[in-house]
Structure formats: structure tokens, C-alpha cells
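Model: You mentioned two targets. I'll fold them one after the other.
Researcher: Yes, keep them separate.
Model: Target one:
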Amino acid sequence: MNISDFYRTEELNADEIEIVVTLPTFKRPEQVLLTLQSLASQTVTKPYAVIVMDNHEDGEGAESAANFMAEHNVNGLVIIAHDRGNCHAYNAGWATALKEFKNFKWLAVIDDDEIADENWLHNHLKTLENTKSDIVGGPQLQQFHEGTADVWKRHPVFKPHYDTTGTVPILYSSGNVVIKREVIDAMPRPFLDPQFNFIGGGDSDFYRRCAVKGFRFAWCNEAPVFEDVPERRATFRWVNARSYRNGAISAIIETRIHNNRAKTIFKSFLLLAASPFRSLKSAIEQKSLIIGLYHMQIAFGRLLAEFGIINEQYRNPEAN
């Protein structure tokens, strides 16, 4: 794994750390400071450390994070994950956690465009204990810019998958999650499959494989993170691309589950045939043609993926 050490806080007692928070960053040297500030304000009493994984060679994000950690006495490390792609960045952080913090019990993940609630870690751990689960996720609450049309605020691509604390069958996003050490120890490496580096979905695939091993999932609605939504995302073009991408991920993961591509293709055609009726129903219920189109966009994305046409939204981060 192609990793370089960049910074380590002074007097870091790695053996005492119980929670490791991994924070991937890519060309967001200012936004990552807001994320770090929220991590520095956590109310949890258990000792924790932060690993920042800069996935860009210029090291601007690493420099920014290192300066903040030094000035604000935040325990942790900053590394450079040289292999480009979000799965590589996550894998670098998780492998570093195992290497540097031998006694950690929980691994948390937050992204560099998110700000954690001050009780974020505390509430996640509480839910893990109460539900006897192994992996807990929480809502990524979208923060739209002033003047954003209401239709985007209500669109499914921006909505959390659950809204009630308790056990759930599966999780889908790694942007707000806490994972027990036992899960990390049990899962083969690479943890996230690099095939998903530029389309996303590596987290969904990871959770699917965790479920196969018998690990249990929970949702903590009281552990939100607040995610900035750039104005370019509150547009039909971006939402359409994201919807197609979501359909593609669905097809790829389903093929892996059943190990039967013919079955997946057949299901994709069936979903495409049914999608106009589902879209019409949704459009009427939501009083929005744009929201209603989501079912058709997902279906088209699935079918395109069957023929190798996949939208790699993360390939060009400036447009994502």
C-alpha cells in the first residue's frame, strides 16, 4: 500500500487510544478544517485520535490538517495516500489505524465536506451498545445554499436511508459510520474494493460482505453529520448523473451477490419496463416530475452498467 507519513502529534500515546476517526480528504484544505474543528469538540470521554488521509499529491490538505492538529492539540496522524481513488484512501486510513493504534476498539469515518454534531461519537457508541450491533451509521444532513429550489431538498439522492434509531438490515454510506474493531479484523484486505474508486459504492459492497459474515447493523438518528451541498449539485445535470451512478452500483453489487450476470440483466430489463409506472406514481405523490424521474434514472443506470457504461462521478472531483 502506497502511503507516506506526513505528520504525527507530539506526545501521542497510541496505546491509550480507543477510537480512531478516519478522515479522507481531496483538494479541500479549507473544508477539512471545519471537519477537524467538529472532531475537536466531541463530548465523548473515551480517548480518540484522528487519521487524515490526503489523497492528492500536492499535500495541501495534509499541510492544512497538520497545522490545525498542532495548533488545537488534536491527537492523531496525517498521511498521504498516493494511490488515487476514494477506496484507496479509506484502505490507507484503516490499515494505518491497525498499524499505529494496536488497542483501538472502534473505527469511525467522516468525510471532509461534513461537520459532526458534538455528540456524534458518544451517540454512535451508545447505539452500538444498546442494539448489540457491529456497525452503526447516521444521517448525513444536507446543507443547501440559500435560494436552492425545494425540489432538490426533497430529492431521494439527498435523503438519509433511515430516520429512526435502531437495528437496520444494511447500511449504504461510509460518510457517517462507526465500526467495531472485530469487523475490521475479520474482513479481508483491501477492505474497500478499488473497482469502486471513481464510481462510489465501495462502502455498500463492503457492508454486503460484512452482512455475509454475520455482522449486524444499526442506525443512530441522534448522530448526524452536516454535509455541505455545492450549488452545482442542486441541478438536474448532477442529480441525473448521480441517479445513473446509483443504478450502476446496484447492478454491480447484485451481480456479485448472485454471481449470475444473466439474472441481473434480466432483472434490469424488468425494472426498466416497470420504471415509467413507478415514476408516474412517485411524481403524483411528490408533486414533482423531477423526483418522479428517479425510478427511471436508476433503471437506465442499471441497464447501461450491464453494457459497461458507468458514470465515474469521482473521476473529476471539481464537477462532482
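Model: Target two:
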Amino acid sequence: MTFADRHAVLAAGYGDQPDPEDPARVLAMPLVLHIPKADPPARSALLAAAASATVALCLDPRVDAQDDDGVPGPWRADYLAWTRARIRKVARRARGAQWSATADVDGVTADVDGAQARAFVPVAVGDLDPRVKKLQIGGTDLPDDEPGAPEAGKPVFWLDARLGMTVGKAAAQVGHAAMILAGAMTVDEARAWADDGFRCSVRGADEDTWRGLLQRVSRGDAIAVRDAGFTEVAPGSTTVVGTRSA
């Protein structure tokens, strides 16, 4: 399987299979955010790391149908089952030994300016690895920072600042956006982004900026994430707009 084949899975978009009756069988991609107590990262950098880690896992060779010897990739079945269902992510936070322990769980780590996040192979929530399951979903947030202008020539994920999402919720949303944006790119554009380590920026958008971004979405010049409303925001809320560059 080639990069183009992996990209085609993202380009096909979300699945629509109904949720299983047993909530423990619902599929989700776990995300873990490294938030040390003594020296926490900048919120914008941590969210960019979450976006990068998510799309990196989706385009990792281990989700391939097979390698050169005809052996299916080890993440293939779980990944495809997740993309065919409703795309869900659950973000947790870790520090110290907790963070180190998750390094042995199948996934991909991204580092953006010293901020680190890991995306793990999607799994039924009832089967979540204990090293990840023990981590807290809430209880820690990060203040908004002032990172300046987005990095030129790199994708940007704009959050609707009026929604006031927690860092965990925002991490899941920019992860969704990274998948959608990669799928909307051409194969060559997505490959170039991969070669650049999926470098990106995350910024908050005020009301005027947000209005302009929604206009870009309506013109087909940007992508948008509309949330199902399971947590924090109302169903149908547009949470993130992704652009190919600043």
C-alpha cells in the first residue's frame, strides 16, 4: 500500500455506522497531552502537537493494507473500523511517570516547540490500555497564550474563541480538523505536509476573524469541523476552521 492509498482513506471522509448498543464497544482514538506540573507547555503549541500526532497516525505505514511481503499492517483493522464509524477522540493529560509509561502503547508522538502529544491506535473504550485509561480526562487546563502570527506557509487551525473549549476538547477538535484538511489536500500536498512533519499552527479566532473564516469555508477555500455536541458545545457547533496556510 502506498501513501496515496492511506490518503484515500482520509479523503473518503467519515463513516456513518451506528454506535454499538454496548457503550464499552464504542470506538475512539485516545489522545494524551503532556502537561507537566512544574513547566506546562503553551496551549497553542500543545494543540498543534495534538493535530500533528493525529494526522501522522492516520498516514502512518502501519495502517497499510499490507507491506511488501503481503503482511497486513498491525494497526490496519482497528484504524479502518474507527474511520468507518463516527470519528471520536478522547483526550487525557499526563505528567512524569504517567507520560513515560504511555510511550510503550501503540501510537505516534508529536513535538511542537517542546509541547508533546500522543495519538494512539483507535480502540473500543472498554478495551483501552490501562496505562492510558488511568489518566484523567479533565481537571487540568491551560490558559490562552499569545503565540503571535501563525507560521507562514503551514496549515492553520482556527478555534472559535467564543466557545471557551477546554484544552482536551480543543485537542480532539483540531485532531478532527487535521484529518479533514489532509483528506481535502491533493496527494502531493499531503505528502509534502508529511515530509514537513505535519507542522501546523493553532490559533484562536475572534468574532470578526471567525466570520471571515466561515466565508472561506463557504467558498471551498477552507474546511470546518462541526461537532456532534456530546460534550461542552451545542450539537452542530462549528468548532474549528482549517486552512492550508496562514
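Researcher: Noted. Anything on target two?
Model: The radius of gyration is 17 Å.
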